[in-house]
From TrEMBL:
Full protein name: Membrane protein
Transmembrane region(s): 180-200, 207-225, 231-251, 278-300, 306-331
Region (Disordered): 352-435
Organism name: Streptomyces alboflavus
Main location: membrane
Pfam families: MMPL (PF03176)
């Protein structure tokens, strides 16, 4: 596996333009498929074998007009100026408004009469009508939503106060604020860690590509397989997480290989062969775990697990193929030469640890190990040196004829550990000879 990924990394680095083009084609292909062949994602949850599911199935069979899974809207109509809603003029305006609601969509099964259903407030100023659709809210089109909005507006033009609620109304625009905040925090953390804007941005770029491909594929398959909307939410969450994580492994290993002296191409290949192996192993583990949700035999969990497993698999492929190619484009900027300036500016406490006042400085004026200081204990020229070679020669047989032919011991140098003129050794001879 490591050798295979090493070759992939080297090839992707050399042919980086081709790799980027291939991923762009993949993204474009799934994007076109999502735009043309996708269907609306359902929000219905089916739990086969449960009492609730059997009750819903029975209601749908016995009362098809009042589909248990159908969309619904609750329309509230109020007379102006504290008038009674059952007055002749207000009653006529109410009936005309509800008639417009009935004609607003071909999927409306029933619009209840508030007077027949006794859905009028105790004060007599407000009436309540229930609108039932024959299809789920996910099958309603923009035309259905616009028709209902126009029908409600017609009631306001007649002088009534008309409001509505329910899942048949136009859904609000989806907000991706959480994803944006997550990406921003990840960018700040990576920038502080790497000290390089390029190195911090590469994992984010690959994560975005992986999530884009995964979401487009899920959207394209939502129509044929009736995927639940929760599947795309889970796939997005895991795709962002593992996309950044897996790419981070390879970038960090690449920087280590460059610091060890390898050139850019070899460093990318080695990073893909070592860190890439861990990425593949971790990805396969997550894919198997998510696919295991199918064992529960619930369609919603099976769809969520398989969609998320597909997003993780795409993240692995992007990390081991697109990341080496992007490293080839980034060049030396991934190494992070500006990290020292970043640390000195924003983290002065860490920069002080390597400042000029370091206690281990060998050139400082108060260094305890200085060989040239005036109070050095090992100084060969100091007046108090215990092993000074210029001091008085010890008396005794050590200076007799037996040592006449021995060379004169050399003076000790500063910092030397041993000396051939050791006083301890010379003074031990007389006692041994007398013994």
């Amino acid at each position: 596996m490591a050798t295979f990924l090493h070759r992939i990394g080297r090839t992707a680095f050399r042919r980086r333009w081709l790799v980027v083009l291939l991923w762009a084609l993949v993204l474009g292909a799934v994007g076109v498929a999502a735009a043309n062949g996708s269907g609306p994602q359902t929000t219905n949850v089916t739990l086969p074998g449960t009492e609730a599911q059997r009750a819903n199935d029975l209601l749908e069979k016995q009362f098809p007009a009042a589909n248990a899974d159908g969309a619904n809207a609750r329309v509230v109509l109020r007379a102006p100026g504290g008038e009674k809603i059952d007055s002749a003029d207000n009653r006529a305006a109410l009936k005309a408004t509800l008639a417009d609601v009935q004609k607003s969509s071909a999927h409306i099964a029933k619009v209840s009469d508030p007077f027949a259903a006794k859905a009028v407030s105790a004060t007599g100023t407000t009436a309540y009508s229930q609108v039932t659709y024959s299809v789920p809210d996910t099958e309603l089109t923009d035309r259905d939503h616009s028709g209902l909005d126009k029908a409600l507006e017609s009631g306001r033009d007649r002088g009534l106060t008309v409001e509505a609620s329910g899942n048949a109304l136009r859904p609000p625009e989806e907000s991706h604020t959480a994803e944006v905040i997550g990406f921003a925090l990840a960018a700040v953390i990576l920038l502080i860690t790497f000290g390089s804007l390029v190195a911090a941005g590469l994992p984010l770029v690959t994560a975005l590509v992986g999530v884009a491909v995964s979401m487009a594929a899920i959207t394209a398959l939502s129509g044929p397989f009736e995927l639940n909307s929760n599947a795309s939410v889970l796939a997005t969450m895991l795709g962002i997480a593992v996309g950044i994580d897996y790419a981070l492994f390879i970038v960090s290993r690449y920087r280590s290989e460059r610091a060890a002296g390898y050139d850019a191409e070899e460093a990318a290949a080695r990073a893909n062969g070592t860190a890439g192996s861990a990425v593949v192993f971790a990805g396969l583990t997550v894919v198997i775990a998510l696919a295991g949700l199918a064992v529960v035999n619930l369609s919603i969990l099976t769809a969520m697990g398989l969609a998320a497993a597909g997003a993780v698999a795409v993240a692995v492929l992007v990390a081991v193929t697109l990341m080496p190619a992007l490293l080839g484009f980034a060049g030396e900027r991934v190494v992070g030469r500006g990290r020292g300036r970043f640390v000195r500016r924003f983290l002065p406490g860490r920069a002080a640890a390597s400042g000029p006042t370091s206690a281990a400085s060998a050139t400082g004026p108060t260094s305890a190990a200085s060989a040239t200081g005036p109070t050095s204990a090992a100084s060969a020229t100091g007046p108090t040196s215990a092993a000074s070679a210029t001091g008085p020669t010890p008396t005794g047989p050590a200076t007799g004829p037996a040592r006449a032919g021995s060379p004169r011991p050399a003076s000790r140098t500063a910092g030397s550990r041993t000396s051939s003129a050791s006083p301890r050794r010379s003074w031990s001879w007389p006692s041994s000879r007398s013994a």
